[in-house]
Amino acid sequence: MGRSRRRTTGGVIRRRSPPAALALPGVRQVDGAPGQVGPGRASSDAKPFNNRDIEVMREQLTGVQAVAPVAQKSVPVIYGTENRNTVVTGTDSGYFVVQKWALARGRGFHEGDERAGRAACIVGQTVREKLFGRADPVGETIRVHNVSCEVIGLLEAKGQSSFGNDLDDTVLMPLRAFQRRIAGNMDIARVYVSARNGVDTAKVQTGIERLSRERRNITPGKEDDFSVRDMKQVVQATAGATAVLTGLLGAVAAVSLLVCGIGIMNIMLVSVTERTREIGIRLAIGALEEQVLMQFLMEAVVLSLFGGILGIALGLGLAVVTTTALNVPFLVDPFIILVAFGFSAVVGIVFGYIPAHRAAHLDPIQALQHE
């Protein structure tokens, strides 16, 4: 489900191939298919949603802010000598509300564009870069499949989805133009619904399910041939999975820090043992315990920071290689690097304190007699 500038929840109606599906942002999804006994299975009897279904939803659903039909197809998009396959989406102005997607330049779809089925296009940032470079595409004409289409707007960048898809690699067209001139049918694969702020999404879900069953002539006792997806629950599930992964990575990092800290402590203990006479001489000629303590603490911190620098450099190098191989942006947060660098210093202080304390409290006479 998309959101407006106010916090909203809603859903999406989606037709699978071949079954139909209903999904609402903010509403629980139950996967299912027509004519099947259990959820998650498909049937060739499933019929797609149509324009009248959208009109009825807008008229009869309560607590809804926007309803946006969506039909998609991957087709060639051509400008001059540049040519690329991209996902073309047929929709209307409600799409920008439910997806909370603003325009960087140009304008959205007017009611006249939607009613007349005018071949007008709004392109994403990736399409702009591939076809026009850094030039402004608004006002230019591109070919979408075999249709000449005027670019009337440019979408703001959204980046990648949680599944790694490039959301900016898209072209939007008025639904009727897409249906008649690109898809060649009046089918609607899914419908996005945005609930108003403060509205119980369970009620919105119930209303959509009831209305969809009526529209699709599903009698009591029969399985739904559509699905309703609650995007809040999807986000919560994703957040839960992310929290588990973060916890696991944190545990691995903690073990790594512990092992590294013990290594630093052992190295410093060996250093104290090998330099016992040196420490005894310093204490005998007047060095204070605090000065000896600080000397060995600083040595431990330097050793830890050196390891931290190597680790940061190795991590950045692996990140560059990975992002290049996966063709995803490489972004660096300097704050995270500073935090990692600070942790290196803390590890040196914590695990270097015991050897430093031992060195500072050596008896000068016994230290001088040490072989």
UniProtKB/TrEMBL annotation:
Domain ABC3 transporter permease C-terminal stretches: 251-364
Q: Which UniProt keywords apply?
A: Cell membrane, Membrane, Transmembrane, Transmembrane helix
Does the keyword section mention Iron-sulfur? Answer: no
Report the InterPro entries cross-referenced here. ABC3_permease_C (IPR003838), MacB_PCD (IPR025857), Macrolide_Exporter_MacB (IPR050250)
Where is the segment annotated Disordered?
A: 1-49
Q: Which organism is it from?
A: Azospirillum himalayense
Instruction: Please tell me whether the keyword Transmembrane is annotated for this protein.
Output: yes
Which part of the chain is the MacB-like periplasmic core domain?
36-210
Membrane topology of this protein: Multi-pass membrane protein
As for subcellular location, the record says: Cell membrane
Q: What Pfam families does the entry give?
A: FtsX, MacB_PCD
Query: Which residues are listed as membrane-spanning?
Result: 248-272, 300-323, 335-354
Composition bias (Basic residues) maps to 1-17
What is this protein's record name? ABC transporter permease
Superkingdom of this entry's organism? Bacteria
